[in-house]
Structures are given as C-alpha cells and as structure tokens.
C-alpha cells in the first residue's frame, strides 16, 4: 500500500512531512507518534495491521526524516512544541485515535491533556512516567554520546539496551540510521534528555487531569527500561485506563518477533474497536494483562 505524501504547514512555523494510508472501508483514522531519533519507517510493522481497519497517519518531526529539508534547525523543539504540532495534525487529518511509541508518549500525553475534541481513544506503547535505574543509566550514557556527537557509539548503546531484543537485521538498520543522523538531531536529543534526567518524571502528571478518554498502555514483558510495573502509576491519575503486556517482548514490541506482532495486533484492534464504556464517580483500573487473556 502506497501512502499519500504531503507536507503540512503548521502556522507558518514548521513544515511536517506526512504519510496518509487510506483504507477503503475505514470509518476511523489513527495518527502514530514517533519515539526519539526515529522516523515514519519505525512504524512499518504497525501499519500492516492498523491499515486493515483504519486510515493511518504517520509523520516526521520537523527535525527528523523527510521533514528535515523543509525546516531550519536553529534551536531544539520542546515537548510542548511537539504536542502543538500533534494537535494541529489531528485537526488537519480529522483523527479519531492516537497511538504513540516510546518517548513519543510525552508529546502524546501533553496533547491529550488539552482534550482534543476529535480524539476518542489513545494507545501509549513502550512508555513509562518513571525514570527507573536502567533507564537513567541508559540516558546518562546516551548524553555522553550525544554531547560528543558520537553517532556510532550511540547506535551501539541503543542496540545493546532498549534494542537488545531486536532481530539482528533490525539492529543493523537501527545502527545505520542512528549513526548517520545530522548534527542538529543529536543536539535535539541531547537537549531533551538533559531536561528529563533532572525531573522526577518525564511526564508532567498535572496534565493528566485533562485526559477524559479511554487510554491503553502497552509494554513488553521483558522491557526493563519502560517496565509494565512502572507504567501502572498512571492508574492513580487517569479515570479510565487499561494495561496490556506483550509476552516475551522488549521495548520494540511488534518489531521483535512474529508472535509479538500478532499479539500487538490483537490487543490494539480489540481495544480500538470495542465500544467505550465511560466511567463516572470512580477511577477504572481495568487490567488487560497478557494479550491472549483479553
């Protein structure tokens, strides 16, 4: 399936490369939010199952991928900037659902906190509001590589930590991509990491009071960096959230092996296609433990 390519102007400030996968029978549209240092290519496996049921929107941040030639890179974007871009794209494409991956969850949660009227449900994958010991160690080592503009070292770091469960072919692609980024992309990531390592959490919990839609959090069973246990903190702050654990998977979920891809497909499609049951007067802490138990 070939997407429709467009460069969307965001209030004359940013120009964003977008890819729209149209599904002939789809009645809903979902937008996918990248993690750090990644591009639309990171969602190649996810699009395969989502596009069977929905129109799918992918985009590159202004500093990344195919958006880079259309923008100046004088200073790093903030997560608030990224949330604003996301909100504008939601309106532009008339989006119904949202899915984020990894650190894309920060911009996604900030955007959801502003209650975009169109969004009915959201899926936040491989994300945690807590910076646990393995994540802090990874970030501190990453800061050193980013400061030195050492893309080769950063590529090895990613593959040996959050990417350690990826197949060897994906690791090679990952390393080739990370080691060949432009200098401003390393500066962008350095600014973001430097900011979050000095916070107790890298998700501003006060923004969650505005989230009034069902949210599903999906984490890999073996992901020690954004662990299934840590993400349950969200149950204390959100009125309607569910949790799913993908068996025998790490941080990259549906990229890691066929069974994880199948489980992700089942979990996401089941959640997005189910009828919402809004709760009143109490916090719902529904549990979608393992994919096969749903």
Automatic annotation (TrEMBL):
Gene3D superfamilies documented for this protein:
alpha/beta hydrolase (3.40.50.1820)
Q: Which residues form the AB hydrolase-1 domain?
A: 29-257
Q: Which domain of life is it from?
A: Bacteria
Q: Know the name of this protein? A: Pimeloyl-ACP methyl ester carboxylesterase
Question: One Pfam family this chain carries?
Answer: Abhydrolase_1
């Amino acid at each position: 399936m070939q997407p429709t390519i467009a460069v969307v102007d965001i209030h004359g400030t940013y120009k964003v490369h977008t890819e729209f996968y149209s599904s002939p029978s789809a009645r809903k549209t979902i937008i996918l939010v990248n993690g750090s240092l990644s591009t639309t290519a990171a969602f190649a496996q996810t699009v395969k199952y989502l596009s069977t049921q929905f129109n799918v929107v992918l985009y590159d941040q202004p500093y990344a991928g195919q958006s880079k030639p259309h923008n100046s890179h004088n200073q790093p974007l903030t997560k608030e900037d990224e949330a604003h871009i996301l909100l504008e794209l939601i309106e532009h494409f008339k989006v119904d659902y949202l899915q984020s991956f990894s650190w894309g969850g920060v911009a996604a949660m900030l955007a959801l906190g502003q209650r975009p009227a169109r969004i009915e449900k959201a899926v936040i994958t491989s994300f945690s509001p807590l910076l646990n010991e393995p994540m802090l160690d990874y970030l501190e080592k990453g800061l050193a590589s980013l400061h030195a503009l050492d893309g080769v070292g950063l590529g090895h770091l990613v593959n040996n930590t959050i990417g350690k469960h990826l197949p060897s072919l994906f690791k090679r692609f990952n390393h080739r991509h990370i080691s060949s980024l432009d200098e401003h992309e390393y500066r962008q990531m350095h600014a973001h990491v430097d900011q979050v390592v000095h916070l107790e959490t890298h998700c501003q919990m006060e923004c969650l009071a505005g989230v009034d839609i069902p949210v599903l959090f999906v984490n890999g069973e073996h992901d020690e960096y954004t662990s299934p246990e840590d993400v349950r903190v969200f149950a204390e702050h959100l009125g309607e959230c569910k949790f799913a654990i993908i068996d025998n998977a790490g941080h990259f979920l549906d990229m890691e092996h066929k069974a994880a891809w199948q489980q992700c497909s089942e979990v996401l499609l089941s959640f997005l296609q189910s009828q919402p049951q809004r709760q009143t007067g109490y916090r719902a802490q529904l549990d979608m433990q393992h994919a096969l138990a749903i």
